[in-house]
Design brief:
The chain is of the alpha+beta class and 409 residues long. The protein has 4 domains: 117 residues, Beta Polymerase, domain 2; 88 residues, Hydrophobic Seed Protein, CATH 1.10.110.30; 120 residues, no CATH class; 36 residues. The model has no long low-confidence stretch (mean pLDDT 94). The chain has a 7-stranded mixed beta sheet with strand order 3-4-5-2-1-8-9. A two-stranded antiparallel ribbon has the order 6-7. The termini are far apart. It has 20 helices and 11 strands. Helix content is 51%, strand content 9%.
């Protein structure tokens, strides 16, 4: 029995990056031998075991062959005869197909170290094209390592293009896709994830609503970058630079989908794109079964982001409706995330990345003014039921009028 550290742990150590998750592969062992040493079995599809003390996962060396569609369409074979090289060749990229023993002696049959030094993401074997999830995974790694100068090898991009055209991407489950998408959006350069997907044709399969934004012009007065797709990537870039959470980054990606529906004869204007885009945002949310908080914020930002930009001009009644829509009294964090998404949208424009956004503090102040309306005096006056609700609304409107007057003074 020989045990090796494999995959990302080896890659990141060689890159000088912190190692978090460690994958182990065991060569020359049987299931019975693993159980005899106290390892606990966990894998239903193939032999994976938990270490009796550390709890880390140890997998028996295995080979695999394609037996069906999608991520799960594989038959695995694990036995003591399977070599380390045979196990490594089934992996996605050369930089993930390296192993090291407990003395840090490197086994690198597919030249992963050379590709690390050349900053290239390259597939190990033609079997890469058998797993459609790898399209998303490579795009995610491109986003993670773009800052180090990594690019996708042309021949790997071609295989990704073939996968995108084959229909295999449609066999991916929503859960697997969302796991890769959500992790990619939280990388330092999430725009690279979208760019790589677009370059290999996967974006128009997975998110045709986002793909449709490229080539759609906007008024140069407000959008010096003009192209709506380029703007969307810039907004996402701002969200990453400002360390925004996943909810905000997801909303930033989807906020302008309605512009993809504007008839060409109306370009570059996009009247009511906030409302036309809602059905598209809902469709993308449902396709990937995004978490509820991501879904809700994306829809709200899509509908109200132009309200955010025009906050200083809004009538008190419109401002109150906006606050009510977000339920700022019970869910203040969601409104804070909306403000953040609006600010990223305003900054995601060529040459305006450092612009100030006074609307943010104005909206926060409005929420505080409305939230500070005391309910107890209204109860003491005998208001209850629907009448109480109307009385609270009147007082909040009064508070917002006073707030707007004070802010304008």
């Amino acid at each position: 029995m020989r045990i090796y550290k494999v995959g990302g742990a080896v890659r990141d150590r060689l890159l000088g990056k912190p190692v978090t998750d460690i994958d182990w592969v065991v060569v020359g062992a049987t299931t019975e031998e693993m159980l005899a040493q106290g390892y606990r079995p966990v894998g239903a599809d193939f032999p994976v075991f938990l270490h009796p003390k550390s709890g880390e996962e140890y997998a028996l060396a295995r080979t695999e062959r394609k037996s069906g569609r999608g991520y799960g369409g594989f038959t695995f074979h694990a036995s003591p005869e399977v070599t380390l090289e045979e196990d490594l060749i089934r992996r996605d990229l050369t930089i993930n197909a390296m192993a090291e023993d407990d003395q840090q002696n490197l086994t690198d049959p597919y030249h992963g170290q050379r590709d690390l030094e050349a900053r290239v993401l390259r597939h190990v074997s033609p079997a890469f094209a058998e797993d459609p999830l790898r399209v998303l995974r490579v795009a995610r790694l491109a986003a993670r390592y773009a800052g180090l100068g990594f690019t996708v090898a042309p021949e790997t991009l071609e295989l990704m293009r073939q996968l995108s055209e084959s229909g295999e991407l449609k066999a991916l489950t929503a859960e697997r896709s969302w796991k890769e998408i959500s992790r990619a959006l939280m990388e330092d350069q999430p725009r690279v994830f979208i760019e790589v997907l677009r370059e290999c044709g996967a974006l128009k399969v997975l998110m045709p609503e986002v793909d449709a934004l490229f080539g759609v012009p906007q008024p140069a007065t407000h959008h010096p970058e003009i192209d709506t797709g380029v703007h969307t990537l810039s907004v996402l870039e701002q969200a990453a630079q400002h360390k925004q959470p996943l909810t905000v980054r997801w909303a930033c990606l989807l906020h302008d989908l309605g512009k993809g529906l504007t008839p060409e004869e109306e370009w570059p204007r996009h009247i009511a794109h906030e409302h036309t885009g809602l059905k598209l945002i809902k469709a993308v949310n449902e396709r990937f079964k995004a978490p509820k908080d991501c879904q809700e914020l994306a829809l709200l930002v899509g509908q109200y982001h132009t309200h955010g930009h025009r906050a200083l001009e809004l009538k008190p009644s419109t401002l109150l409706d906006l606050l009510q829509s977000f339920d700022v009294y019970r869910r203040p964090q969601r409104f804070e995330e909306f403000i953040a998404a609006c600010e990223m949208d305003a900054r995601g424009r060529k040459g305006l990345e450092q612009r100030s956004y006074p609307q943010a503090d104005y909206l926060r102040g409005a929420a505080t003014a409305a939230r500070n309306v005391a309910v107890q005096p209204l109860l003491e006056k005998g208001f209850k039921g629907p009448e109480l609700g109307e009385a609270i609304k009147r007082e909040r409107l009064k508070a917002l009028k006073a707030y707007k007057e004070a802010a304008s003074a």
